[in-house]
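Quick review question:
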């Protein structure tokens, strides 16, 4: 549905122009989903609840990590293999400019993944089961795309190959950003989302030229952020957490806000 895609891109860019009044681990994904659900239109909320009914939940937070969980489900092995590359994008240019043939060959990256599943979600000619699956992917991938290391430009597998010491244990930078740093806050996803929501409406980053692909811009933002989050050396200390946790939390809030707008548009008709 190209016309839906075009109108959504225009609408999303409009939103971005207006100052707004391992993915992450399960904690981060649930926070993004919950922040988004608080800002659904009544129409979108009703459609989300209808699509989620077979999952026996009304909460987007409950399905936000499904796209990662299928990795460990033998029955979903084919779907995992088909979608595993859609959780991230590796920028090959240090300037973080998104060029699809280079950075998203054959549509195998998070930018194309979001685009595809938003179209399926918004297409009422698709069976509900397909649209539910699309909803689960959209909720997850928009979260992932805002994790800075899911849009990295270094040749280190999004920080997975950058070893660090954190809380006296060996791990890697990607894992610290997926979940390690968020966990230091000591809250479950619901009270954590409450706390972030209480900070008020998030001001979204200004559009980056050429303004024609909001999903690409969100990945480019992650890429730019990712360049500044490598520690000096390989030790993650409290000073690092004090500096970078607010960056991670801002990305969660931006993801939640944008996810709400995407769902409101896709489910508005
Ligand atoms: Zn993921």
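Suggested answer, residue by residue:
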């Amino acid at each position: 549905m190209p016309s839906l895609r075009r109108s959504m891109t225009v609408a999303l860019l409009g939103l971005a122009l207006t100052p707004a009044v391992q993915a992450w681990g399960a904690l981060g994904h649930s926070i993004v989903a919950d922040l988004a659900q608080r800002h659904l239109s009544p129409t979108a909320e009703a459609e989300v609840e209808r699509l989620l009914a077979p999952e026996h939940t009304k909460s987007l937070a409950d399905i936000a990590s499904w796209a990662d969980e299928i990795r460990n489900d033998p029955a979903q092995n084919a779907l995992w293999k088909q979608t595993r590359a859609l959780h991230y994008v590796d920028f090959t240019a240090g300037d973080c400019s998104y060029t699809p043939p280079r950075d998203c060959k054959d549509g195998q990256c998070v930018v194309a993944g979001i685009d595809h599943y938003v179209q399926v979600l918004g297409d009422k000619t698709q069976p509900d089961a397909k649209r539910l699956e699309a909803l689960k992917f959209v909720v997850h991938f928009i979260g992932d795309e805002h994790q800075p290391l899911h849009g990295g430009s270094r040749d280190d597998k999004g920080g997975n190959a950058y070893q660090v010491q954190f809380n006296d244990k060996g791990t890697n930078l990607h894992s610290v950003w997926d979940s390690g740093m968020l966990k230091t806050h000591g809250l479950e996803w619901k009270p954590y989302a409450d706390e972030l929501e209480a900070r008020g409406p998030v001001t979204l980053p200004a559009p980056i030229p050429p303004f024609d692909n909001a999903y690409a811009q969100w990945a480019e933002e992650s890429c730019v952020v990712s360049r500044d989050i490598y520690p000096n050396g390989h030790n993650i200390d409290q000073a690092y957490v004090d500096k970078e946790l607010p960056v991670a939390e801002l990305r969660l809030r931006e993801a939640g806000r944008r996810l709400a707008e995407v769902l409101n548009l896709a489910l508005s008709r």
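Why it works: The radius of gyration is 18 Å. The first strand starts at residue 163 and ends at 166.
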